[in-house]
């Protein structure tokens, strides 16, 4: 990853990075780049605009990519969306942009915007885009896609439609008037389409203005070309298998004019410096020019006095004109000042996870390397108030122990967009005007105040858990707050008919001592289940229950909620999900402890099933629940004769995309089929395929998909594969549109 201003507190940035970031403080141009999903964005153009044009650029992805596939693990749906959210944050930390989201849930592929808006409430999402334009006040808006329907994903086209309509409505005080308590109407100058230019080719259209950006150049301050930065940024989308290699040589990107004020030479024609809007703006702008001209690359700390003076001027301006863009400039300038002094301030916990109501001992560690008067004042947050009142001398670190108590009602670390049930493919926010931020603020934080050269500064510090890894060295993970009582289920699907075992194991974990109570099931009569306490571990503070269910012939499928109710009446029904990958921080979210009961009487044959791993799925576990004997196969260690011991072999999702061993030994499996074995290949994508020889006859994987939920799914009831032992009929496919997509 390229060195940038996103360096952690323990890393000293190069002077060229500080200079580059100061150039970006001086420039006030702003851009909103709009598309539909993580990885839709043109990282090369974002890198160019952020680092060559020095513009503040925000990428608005309508969705978090929840409807995509996962190349690195089992997570799908909201779990995958959480991963892709943080992959976008890593991408923006690389290319210099910022990240925003709307409330839209990625519900999967659609062929045109009409289908898309049948699943998304257009007015709600249009309001989101209007609000974000008003809040972030871009000078220009760039769409990744155009509005021509049917040539790309319907979400893509919808994003362009929304951006163009929002461009006009954001300036209309009669549109979404409820927003005007927080933001003001804003008129951007113009909207462009970042026209496709596969292979660098772009064909201008008659009478449609466009602008060509030469984006293949090097940025000497960053020590990389924009193609290199773009490739590093795109490689952050690891769950999608989007590792990228930089393009060498000249490259171009094109902006095709859509609407707004006409321009002559530059997309930013007519965009004035925002410093002109401030009473002392000319003083600030001249001060920035002087600071850049006199910048000391050998001793960056010597630039601090001039930068502090500029910060004071910006603070005075902000008191009179509290504009959002000015607040961002102040924060960026403060960061440059602190990094010039190699000022380190860390708020550290002794563990990664805590619970509401818990008492914690934490540490504040601070250090700096400058020779200027630096006075610590205080550190304040919920549950603590530390009066520091001491100088922070050059390279004389201070480590202060702090005792804090989390409030009993301290919010848990639930992503804000998951705090309420999803409705109609939209995340339901408690405050609709809280839309935009990629993630929550830190679960626990404090405000450090200090005085430098007579100017008072405030710095927000989130609480982190720091530890040393034997391979990676220092690692920091965000501190996470969880409920006092959590439930863990060994499965979320229960088959109630034999030979399946109609039981569920539930572990109840207590953070502050075991609390008397009982395990219950909402949605079932008490005669239809029995919850039995099978173990209690006072040291680990857990109780384990076994719940047995009775078949219900009246309802083939039931959805019920498992919960723990204490003797005092408190009720707990949350399950913690943890996601851990080396390229992103550890992630936590919580789900209701709901399970599905399937009461159908399945015929289960007496056979062994071999399972070949793919990118990750739960199919092997489900087959085991049904009563099959399932074994995970290592094809490198099995010869063709050994495969004949299995009645069927199933390959995992995207196995032909990720499992090289499967590709290498496909001939064994085809010989197994020729000898009478059953081979089931689950969903794979067309690219990348590790082998194209995966069938007894030439087969090709299609990109065609069924996207309309109401489309009928028809089965040939007489086909041997569908006729038995468990007949598959049309009524077995309530989710037919998606099933058909993956069957076809």
TrEMBL record:
Family annotation (SUPFAM superfamilies): Class I glutamine amidotransferase-like (SSF52317), LmbE-like (SSF102588)
Species whose genome carries this gene: Nitritalea halalkaliphila LW7
Protein name listed in UniProt: LmbE family protein
Taxonomic lineage of the native organism: Bacteria, Pseudomonadati, Bacteroidota, Cytophagia, Cytophagales
Pfam families: PIG-L
GO MF term list: hydrolase activity, acting on carbon-nitrogen (but not peptide) bonds, in linear amides
């Amino acid at each position: 990853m390229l060195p940038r201003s996103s360096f952690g507190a323990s890393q000293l940035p190069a002077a060229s990075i500080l200079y580059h970031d100061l150039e970006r403080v001086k420039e006030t141009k702003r851009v909103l780049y709009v598309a539909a999903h993580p990885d839709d964005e043109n990282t090369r153009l974002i890198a160019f605009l952020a680092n060559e044009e020095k513009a503040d650029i925000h990428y608005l992805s309508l969705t978090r990519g929840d409807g995509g596939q996962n190349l690195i693990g089992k997570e799908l749906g909201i779990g995958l969306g959480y991963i892709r959210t943080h992959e976008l944050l890593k991408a923006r930390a690389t290319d210099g942009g910022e990240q925003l989201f709307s409330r839209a849930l990625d519900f999967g592929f659609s062929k045109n915007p009409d289908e898309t808006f049948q699943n998304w409430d257009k007015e709600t999402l249009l309001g989101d885009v209007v609000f974000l334009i008003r809040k972030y006040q871009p000078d220009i808006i760039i769409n990744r896609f155009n509005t021509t329907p049917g040539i790309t994903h319907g979400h893509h086209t919808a994003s362009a439609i929304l951006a163009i309509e929002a461009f006009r409505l954001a300036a209309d005080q009669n549109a979404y008037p409820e927003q005007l308590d927080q933001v003001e109407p804003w008129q951007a100058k113009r909207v462009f389409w970042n026209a496709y230019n596969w292979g660098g080719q772009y064909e201008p259209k008659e009478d449609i203005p466009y602008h060509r950006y030469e984006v293949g150049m090097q940025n000497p301050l960053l020590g990389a070309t924009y193609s290199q930065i773009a490739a590093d940024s795109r490689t952050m989308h690891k769950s999608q298998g989007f590792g990228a290699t930089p393009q060498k040589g000249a490259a171009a990107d094109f902006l095709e004019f859509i609407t707004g004020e006409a321009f002559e030479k530059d997309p930013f024609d007519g965009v004035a410096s925002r410093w002109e809007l401030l009473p002392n703006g000319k003083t600030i702008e001249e001060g920035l020019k002087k600071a850049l001209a006199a910048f000391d690359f050998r001793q960056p700390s010597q630039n601090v006095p001039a930068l502090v003076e500029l910060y004071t001027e910006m603070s005075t301006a902000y008191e009179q004109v509290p504009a959002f863009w000015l607040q961002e400039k102040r924060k960026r300038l403060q960061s440059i000042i602190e990094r010039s002094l190699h000022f380190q301030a860390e708020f550290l916990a002794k563990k990664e996870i805590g619970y509401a109501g818990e008492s914690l001992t934490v540490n504040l560690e601070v250090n700096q390397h400058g020779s200027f008067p630096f006075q610590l004042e205080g550190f304040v947050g919920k549950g603590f108030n530390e009066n520091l009142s001491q100088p922070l001398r050059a390279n004389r670190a201070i480590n202060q122990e702090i005792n804090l108590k989390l409030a009993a009602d301290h919010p848990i670390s639930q992503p804000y967009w998951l705090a309420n049930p999803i409705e109609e493919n939209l995340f339901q926010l408690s405050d609709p005007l809280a839309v935009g931020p990629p993630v929550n603020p830190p679960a626990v934080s404090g405000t450090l105040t200090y005085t430098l050269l007579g100017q008072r500064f405030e710095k927000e510090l989130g609480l982190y858990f720091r530890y040393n890894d034997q391979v990676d060295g220092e690692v920091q993970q965000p501190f996470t707050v969880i409920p006092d009582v959590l439930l863990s289920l060994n499965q979320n699907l229960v088959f109630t008919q034999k030979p399946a075992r109609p039981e569920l194991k539930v572990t109840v974990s207590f953070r502050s001592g075991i609390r008397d109570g009982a395990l219950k099931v909402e949605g079932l009569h008490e005669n239809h289940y029995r919850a039995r306490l099978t173990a209690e571990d006072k040291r680990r503070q857990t109780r384990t229950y076994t719940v047995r269910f009775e078949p219900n012939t009246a309802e083939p499928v039931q959805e019920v909620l498992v919960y723990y109710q204490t003797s005092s009446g408190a009720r707990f029904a949350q399950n913690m999900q943890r996601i851990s990958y080396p390229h992103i921080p550890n992630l936590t979210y919580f789900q209701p402890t709901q399970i599905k009961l399937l009461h159908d009487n399945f015929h289960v044959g007496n056979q062994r099933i071999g399972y070949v791993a793919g990118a990750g799925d739960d199919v092997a576990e489900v087959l085991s629940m049904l009563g099959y004997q399932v074994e995970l196969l290592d094809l490198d260690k099995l010869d063709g004769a050994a495969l004949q011991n299995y009645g069927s072999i199933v390959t995992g999702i995207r196995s032909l995309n990720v499992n090289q061993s499967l590709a290498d030994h496909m001939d064994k499996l085809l010989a197994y089929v020729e000898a009478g074995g059953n081979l089931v290949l689950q969903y794979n994508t067309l690219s990348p395929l590790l082998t194209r020889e995966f069938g007894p006859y030439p087969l090709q994987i299609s990109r065609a998909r069924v996207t309309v939920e109401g489309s009928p799914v028809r089965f040939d009831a007489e086909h041997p594969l569908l006729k038995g032992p468990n007949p598959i009929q049309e009524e077995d496919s309530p989710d037919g549109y998606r099933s058909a997509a993956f069957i076809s």
